[in-house]
Design a protein that fits this description.
The complex is a heterotetramer of chains A (434), B (283), C (244) and D (344). Chain A is built from 13 helices and twelve strands. Chain A is an alpha+beta fold. Chain A has two domains: 34 residues, no CATH class; 374 residues, Orthogonal Bundle (Cytochrome-c3 Hydrogenase, chain B), CATH 1.10.645.10. The radius of gyration of chain A is 21 Å and the shape is globular. Helix content of chain B is 19%, strand content 29%. In chain B, strand 1 and strand 2 form a beta hairpin. Chain B has a seven-stranded mixed beta sheet, with helices on both faces. Chain B has a six-stranded antiparallel beta sheet with strand order 4-3-6-1-2-5. Chain B has a two-stranded antiparallel sheet with strand order 13-14. Chain B has seven helices and 15 strands. Chain B starts with 18 loop residues before the first strand and ends in a 7-residue tail after the last helix. With 283 residues, chain B is of the alpha/beta class. Chain D has two domains: 160 residues, no CATH class; 126 residues, no CATH class. Chain D is built from ten helices and twelve strands. The chains are: A alpha+beta (434), B alpha/beta (283), C alpha/beta (244), D alpha+beta (344). At the A-C interface, helix 1, helix 4 and helix 6 of A face helix 1, helix 2, helix 5 and helix 10 of C. Bound molecules: flavin-adenine dinucleotide and iron/sulfur cluster (3 copies). One iron/sulfur cluster binds next to helix 8 of chain C.
Chain lengths: 434, 283, 244, 344
């Protein structure tokens, strides 16, 4: 069948940041299918220049309000690596709790507010308030609890306050943590399991589409890697975080203010589905049961299933947060001061799994503790090439459908990646021109 | 020093609860000012003296000090006139007949009416300053034979800003009131005096021993008016001014209205000029 | 009829918008007062006219300029939310460097592919009726503005410094802890949340009217940081306002 | 005057014993180096050796933020606030703090009596404690020695690490009735407590200095360093200015009227509608603050309205020192006097 198709989705909705979808097919030959990023560039690397290590995390957390905690964590890890700052076991645990809270929050937001309207064929979550009030209330309840973890441990969920290089400026009270634990077990867990049921019911609306690709995430010896680990490629295995540039290989494309990346193939996938494919063995029984209920199998190659993998992670985060709180309390909460005395200056690299995938920061400090060079590589930027490759495969498969349906399928595909476009435009590995 | 033992539990009265008063009449009298007639619950009397003010309250917005514009001799109701300049005053614009407005007060010192008996009263009002002085004017008119001359100087920016126009023409018509109006900027309809209020003073023929001047107007006005009165040889203690300051509580607690060592809300707003002349922040 | 409300984002992290979605406990109450007609981050719908348009983010490209004029034409009331929109916020830090250098830093040889302007406050391009400050804007502050608009009253302007709220909370002053803090010259309204969690105020709500910047620099240098460092601190959120 | 000895280690037991009268409020640690008056939950957490609390004891009678009423916008009516006032014992209070409460009493009783303050104030008992002056205390210079006992029911005087307990009132006597860990003793005075900070003139000469200080150059010098944060007045135990605001809930149907501490050092304090500001410049405000402490009320009551706690200096980020300003004004005054004499 030879068809002409011209799709332009201007300012894609229900994603963070600005992107347009462009598809161009002439006589059945697909010329173009890509996500073009039009978010105004913000030049964070330039802004970081000359800034003190006290400010680096404050600034980089403003790269993205949605992943502010993720940026902050990666920034802190990077600064600590560069300046040789050791952190305590308590700091590590509190950070892991924060990462869980943020992942939980973000995944709920995406699954319920951004993706669910697609499955139910409505334009936003607001109509659902009338038709599915209990579901909306449940989502709000879960989000509130996830944000409360952020508020209590880090001062506020968006642009956290207390995490600083070397530790925390203030430590939560034991009673506050116990209350969070109670709510996790009594409210969040039942809500999480309900979520699995809801998603199971909606899973029928997920398109059957498969494209095997390279999956990249962190990997850790003892746990489902979120806060720390080495880089792992499903194609070629482990790479040290220090050598992240060997993995990312950024290049500029004309249709995007954001650079693309590639490693062993023309593109790779980062995010919940990559984490699932690479690390699912380290998930709890409950999380596996959830995955099975929603039809998520080990080695899944359907990008639309990323949302389902996120829901599995919700269950994981709830249960693992309880475990972390227990450990913090068993160790006894200490009113520690952050360790902010540098033992060296120079370059540091840090990486975390943030909800949308693997994130890298890379700073070089002068011996006054001010930044001379910085580079940040954001998950959505890493997914862009993969999204384009998916579109190139998907469009011919659905070319018989109406233009409206194709468009909505493509929008749904992009949304499944939970792209965070606002932050995907600040990442280039360029040295400052002195 | 006052001591805590000097007050008993029973003597302590609540300070911050307003009395809800019904608006019985209301009219927008210029583009900026609205006039209200209010009634206390159970036909109580407000019990104020000319020159005193109340704290007017609208829930959700806040409170503002507003002068009582009617004479104490008016029984059963009292009047306010409010210029719409900000948050609260603009919300009050929407209040009309039948609505309830919270009132605390009356607060502050009024004019010492006892010592004004038999005197010639010279009223000097600029703009909204007529509102508190109107209480004094009505009081004098109600007890006309107990006072000497009543001279009213009243100035506004332009003719459309003159308040209480009907009353002005009533006063104009009376031969026991000497009314002199002026506007800063005349328009086509205006046939009267043009110029700032001080231009009216030199022509006045005053009996210096008998005359008491009462001045209210924008902060800038006082200095010049007092200067003109002084050049007519009027003595300091024959001059009263009513001052405006920021106020929150109205009862000498919140500190906002302090003028050097005195509280405008308690020691004023009506001051004898000789008392505040040494206060550097007063005028 | 309920007022039609819309949200738009320009150059920003979208944290302020996210903070709105984080109003879990109040979201349903808010929807009783207003109709949300456009909110790209959360919905597909579009509308032509708005009673209130909330704007997040700075103006930083020629395309932004065009779009904000268009929104202004269609909005009765326009509110800038978050420091990016109110005064340029962190985005404006790039204005401290020559623009070509900035572009080259990030895009190298491809620097001319993407147009950029200095990062500007919304109010330097179109008339702004009200502001909600902060980075991110606080939910409390946003709700206060919304309720004020519903009641037809002037929203609070916050003209006292962060120190006032810090003192009312009886937080330990960071200067007594040997840290430096921008609370004295920063507009309050945040309930001094950062100092109350032991972190210095970064100045995210913008400067006070007539701040004593010399006095502030002196305080900071007396507390052990260099003048250069002190000035950088002040510039963090206020590059468009602080003139040194 | 009865006098007993009390071991430092028995103080927690004394606190527990006092609990029979009511709630106990005492200094606790706050943050790294600060203190705050809090309701005692655990008598072992009470700090006996403290320099000064961040906020003064005033906060217990005139809270930093206080709801004055609830109102409904639907029915345009309000509900008064019920104050639940428990009898309270204020424990380990310094003499200047007690004096500040006595001055506040006067301010709150003058004119119309401040109802909420007085109701809270009525049922309280005060137990003083001696202290070691640090670099900021100067209360002796304003007439308040460390051992000033006016206002206290009981007083703890530290001697060699332990305490002497003085019983000063009938109420004080009944507070310790039945407490057995004290022994009768002879009063002693500790030697090693000296004030490091002093005002050069006796306080009753200060109004005289202020008489001529209005146009001093010193105000401008101070104003150039002041950042106008209000910390000095917000932590001052004899300041009491406040602001009143209405807050409405998200339902837009109800709300509350709330008062919160305000400060005459803030630029907005004396501003009225239309932008007129009666103390627009920092210099006007700094001057007003000191005149309030040493001239206006002092002229009438014969006492400085400053108790020498040192808070405004200790908590000023610009390290502007009130006694230093006073001494500068005094020097200037002396110079002027001298000049006069020479001219004459
Ligand atoms: C003794 C006295 C009598 C007054 N009599 C009248 C009168 O009869 N008619 C009239 O129209 N106006 C009168 N005013 C002025 C009136 O109080 C102010 O215009 C009014 O408070 C403005 O309030 P707003 O909320 O509308 O203005 P906004 O500008 O929104 O006020 C902002 C804040 O400033 C406070 N504020 C502003 N101006 C004043 C002020 N002058 N005094 C106290 N607080 C202020 C308000 O309480 C409010 O919290 C009088 C003022 C005083 C002191
Ligand atoms: S911590 Fe900062 S905001 Fe708080 S009082 Fe000190 S300087 Fe002011
Ligand atoms: S304390 Fe300062 S940085 Fe923190 S929220 Fe408030 S204004 Fe912003
Ligand atoms: S504490 Fe210091 S800087 Fe702040 S207002 Fe007072 S004198 Fe000025």
């Amino acid at each position: 069948m030879s068809r002409d198709l011209n799709i332009k989705v201007h300012h894609l909705t229900r994603v963070e940041g600005h992107g347009n979808i462009v598809v161009n097919m002439k006589n059945g030959v697909l010329e173009k299918a890509h996500l073009s990023i039009v978010e105004p560039p913000r030049f964070f690397e330039a802004m970081l220049k000359g800034r003190s290590f006290h400010e680096a995390a404050i600034i980089t957390s403003r790269i993205c309000g949605i992943c502010s905690l993720g940026h902050q964590m990666t920034s802190l890890v990077t600064t600590e690596d560069a300046l040789g700052l050791e952190i305590s076991e308590q700091t590590r645990l509190l950070r892991k709790l924060l990462v869980h809270g943020a992942t939980f929050q973000s995944n709920v937001l995406h699954a319920y507010f951004l993706a669910a309207p697609d499955f139910l064929n409505v334009g936003s979550v607001f109509p659902l308030i009338a038709t599915h009030k209990d579901v909306v209330l449940r989502a709000l309840r879960m989000k509130r609890l996830a944000n409360d973890i952020g508020d209590i441990v880090s001062g506020r969920a968006v642009h956290p306050i207390t995490p600083v290089p070397g530790g925390f400026t203030s430590i939560p009270e034991k009673g506050e943590l116990l209350e969070i634990k109670r709510r996790l077990l009594e409210e969040a867990l039942p809500d999480g399991l309900e979520t699995v049921e809801t998603m199971k019911a909606l899973a029928g609306a997920i398109p059957q589409f498969e494209r095997e690709t390279e999956y990249i995430s962190l990997k850790h010896g003892d746990e489902y890697a979120l806060y720390e680990g080495d880089i792992f490629s499903s194609d070629t295995g482990l790479v040290s975080v220090r050598n992240y540039l060997d993995v990312t290989n950024e290049f500029v494309v004309k249709h995007s203010t954001s650079k693309h990346t590639r490693y062993n193939r023309s593109s790779y996938f980062v995010g919940a589905l990559a984490r699932w494919n690479n690390n699912q063995a380290q998930l709890s029984e409950e999380a596996h049961a959830a995955a099975e209920a929603m039809g998520l199998k080990p080695d899944c190659h359907n990008p639309f299933m990323n949302t389902i993998a996120q829901v599995v992670e919700i269950v994981h985060c709830i249960l693992d947060s309880v475990r972390i709180i227990d450990k913090l309390i068993a160790n006894g909460l200490k009113n520690e001061k952050p360790n902010q005395t540098p033992t060296r200056y120079g370059r540091g690299v840090g990486s975390n799994e943030v909800p949308r995938g693997i994130l890298f920061h890379d700073y070089t400090y002068d011996n006054k503790g001010n930044i001379v060079a910085a580079n940040c590589i954001i998950p959505t930027g890493q997914n862009l090439a993969n999204i384009d490759d998916d579109m190139m495969k998907l469009v011919p498969e659905i070319v018989d459908k109406s233009k409206a349906e194709i468009t909505s399928n493509l929008e749904m595909l992009v949304r499944a990646y939970d792209p965070c476009i606002s932050c995907s435009v600040h990442m280039l590995n360029v040295e400052f021109i002195e | 020093m006052k001591r805590i033992q000097d007050v008993s539990e029973e003597e302590i009265k609540d300070l911050y609860y307003p009395t809800m008063c019904k608006v019985t009449k209301a009219r927008q009298i210029t583009s900026m000012e609205k006039w209200y007639e209010l009634e206390m619950p159970a036909s109580q009397d407000l019990g104020h003296g000319p020159g005193q003010f109340v704290e007017v309250s609208a829930f959700g917005i806040g409170e503002a000090p507003i002068s009582i514009s009617s004479s104490p001799s008016q029984k059963g109701s009292f009047e306010l006139c409010i210029r719409q300049v900000g948050t609260l005053t603009n919300v009050l614009k929407n209040y009309g007949e039948g609505d309830s407005i919270g009132i605390r007060g009356p607060f502050g010192t009024g004019y010492p009416m006892e010592s004004l008996l038999g005197k010639d009263i010279l009223i000097i009002a600029g703009g909204i300053g007529l509102v508190p002085l109107r209480s004094l004017i009505h009081y004098v008119l109600d007890k006309r034979e107990e006072f000497g001359r009543l001279i009213i100087l009243y100035g506004a920016k332009n003719p459309s800003e003159l308040l209480f126009k009907e009353e002005l023409s009533d006063w104009e018509a009376r031969d026991d009131v000497e009314l002199h109006l002026t506007v800063d900027q005349a328009d086509d309809t205006w046939t009267g005096n043009t110029g700032v209020i001080t231009t009216l003073i030199p022509e006045l023929d005053l009996n210096l021993n008998m005359t008491i001047a009462a001045i209210t107007g924008p902060p800038i006005m006082y200095k010049f008016v007092i200067m003109s009165l002084k050049s007519k040889q009027l003595q300091d203690d024959h001059i009263y001014v009513s001052l405006e300051r920021r106020m929150k509580c109205g009862v000498g607690k919140c500190g906002h209205c302090q003028i050097n060592g005195v509280y405008c809300c308690q020691d004023g707003p009506v001051f004898n000029y000789s008392d505040i002349k040494p206060l550097r922040e007063a005028l | 009829m309920k007022p039609k409300v819309a949200f738009f984002d320009f150059t920003s992290c979208e944290g302020c918008q996210l903070n709105k979605l984080n109003l879990e406990n109040d979201l349903l109450d808010i929807l009783k007062h207003v109709d949300i007609v456009e909110f790209r981050e959360a919905m597909d719908d579009r509308a032509d006219l708005y009673d209130v348009a909330f704007i997040e983010g700075s103006i930083s490209t020629p395309a932004c300029v065009e779009r904000i004029h268009d929104i202004r034409r269609r909005a009765k009331i326009l509110v800038a939310i978050g420091s990016c929109a109110v005064n340029g916020g962190v985005n404006a830090m790039k204005n401290l460097h020559p623009i070509d250098e900035v572009r080259e830093t990030v895009y190298g040889d491809d620097k001319y592919l993407f147009a950029t302007l200095p990062a500007m406050a919304i109010s330097s391009v179109v008339k702004v009726d009200y502001v909600v400050r902060g980075c991110p804007m606080t939910q409390q502050d946003f709700l206060r503005l919304l309720i004020s608009l519903v009641l037809g009253k002037q929203p609070p302007k916050y003209r006292t410094p962060v120190c006032v709220e810090c003192k009312l909370r009886e937080s330990e002053c960071l200067y007594n802890r040997g840290m430096v803090c921008l609370g004295p010259i920063t507009r309050g309204g945040c309930d001094a949340i950062c100092p109350s969690f032991g972190q210095f105020c970064t100045g995210c709500r913008g400067l006070m009217d007539n701040p004593n910047l010399e006095g502030m620099s002196e305080i900071m240098t007396n507390h052990g940081i260099s003048l250069e460092e002190a000035q950088k601190r002040m510039l963090l959120y206020n590059s468009n306002e602080v003139k040194l | 005057m009865e006098c007993y000895s009390l071991l430092r280690t028995d103080v927690p037991d004394l606190i527990d014993h006092l609990g029979a009268y009511g709630e106990i409020v005492a200094p606790h640690s706050k943050g790294d180096v600060s203190y705050s008056f809090e309701v005692v939950q655990d008598s072992n957490k009470v700090v006996l050796d403290y320099d000064r609390t961040l906020l003064p004891l005033k906060k217990m009678f005139l809270p930093p933020q206080e709801k004055l009423m609830d109102f409904s916008l639907k029915s345009l009516s309000y509900t008064p606030i019920k104050l639940h006032i428990k009898p309270r014992v204020f424990f380990a209070i310094h003499s200047y703090e007690m004096q500040s409460i006595l001055r506040l009493d006067h301010s709150m009783l003058s004119g119309q009596a401040e109802s909420n303050y007085l109701r809270r104030r009525k049922k309280s008992r005060f137990i003083g404690i001696s202290f070691k002056p640090d670099e900021f205390h100067f209360s002796e210079s304003v007439g308040i020695p460390i051992e000033e006992m006016e206002g206290f029911d009981l007083y703890l005087n530290e001697v060699d690490g332990d305490y002497q307990l003085y019983v000063l009132t009938k109420n004080g006597h009944s507070l310790i009735e039945g407490f057995e860990k004290i022994k009768t003793a002879e009063p002693e005075i500790a030697e090693d407590r000296k004030f490091n900070k002093k005002i050069r003139f006796h306080y009753n000469r200060l109004p005289q200095v202020f008489q001529y200080a209005y146009h001093s150059e010193i105000w401008a010098e101070v104003a150039s360093r002041c950042v106008g944060c209000g910390s000095c007045t917000l932590t001052c135990p004899t300041c009491f200015c406040f602001d009143v605001k209405d807050e409405v809930t998200v339902t837009a149907e109800s709300g509350m009227r709330q008062r919160s501490w305000d400060s005459c050092m803030l630029s907005t304090f004396a501003e009225i509608a239309g932008g007129e500001n009666f103390r627009e410049k920092t210099i006007n405000r700094t001057r007003h603050r000191l005149y309030r402490k040493f001239k206006y009320i002092t002229d009438e009551e014969g006492l400085p309205w400053c108790v020498g706690c040192g808070r405004c200096t200790a908590f000023c980020p610009a390290e502007i020192s009130l006694p230093d300003i006073l001494n500068d004004l005094i020097n200037e005054d002396e110079k002027a006097q001298h000049h006069h004499q020479v001219m004459a």
